[in-house]
Amino acid sequence: MARPISTYSLVACDLDRGEWGVAVQSKFLAVGSVVPWAEPEVGAVATQAYANPRYGPDGLALLRQGLSADEVVKRLTEADDGRNERQLGVVDAAGHGATFTGSGCNEWAGGRAGPGYAAQGNILVSGETVDALAETFEASSGPLGQRLLTSLAAGQAAGGDSRGQQSAALLVVKRDGGYAGLSDALLDLRIDDHEAPIEELRRLQALHDQLFGQTPRDRWLAIDDELRAEIDERLSALGYERLEDWAGVANLEERIDGNDEIDPVVLHELRRSE
Fold first, then answer.
1. For 42-99, what is each residue's pLDDT tens digit?
2. Domains, the chain, ranges and CATH?
3. Helix (H, G, I), strand (E, B) or coil at 145
């Protein structure tokens, strides 16, 4: 029999931002390769316990047809002879959440759903972990990725997986919200094996924001003669003639746009480069 994915997860959306996503932590290697699934303007799915990985693509296909979260859970589980050992969370395109915990899942196991989210977990210290996921999300605001991470950390602080920690993942999708506006993956970060996976996931999320986030244009700095001289001097010391060339090496090319203004993040990184 397959090893159970002892896991807690939060499936959620922010309709105003057009974002859907999943955050998950588990005592299981590379949990991000199995549990989280999401498609912009369609919905998101988490499949766990003695997970049926087909719940991911099949669930999204049903959501794409316009079925509600409750209907998707019903369709998937009714067609699965192993449903008593499955756990599932779904949020649909309208922001409705639904969760399912089979009667054969290992204790503590359960879930709760509300507007815009579904929280669930199995082999947990107690139900307080699921309560912390739900209540933290309900009380939070801001970008969906940050809300999911904050909720995940709250779940761990409330007890988490009774077997400990090993891996975590954060998936957030938004139509054309990913790299260069040519991807829907706004965030797709995975910690496959780490003693403190949520903290490491938080570190990667901050790095992702630094490299690929967007500073409002009204906060960019005009490049006057003095700043131009400083930029040119620093680039020369690093062996570059053009800011674009250095930014490409530093993975900051998405924060470069023309030569008359500079993103403060780019200037900060240039100044700290040796």
1. 999 999 999 999 999 999 999 999 999 999 999 999 999 999 999 999 999 999 999 9
2. 7-212 (3.60.20.10), 217-272 (no CATH)
3. helix
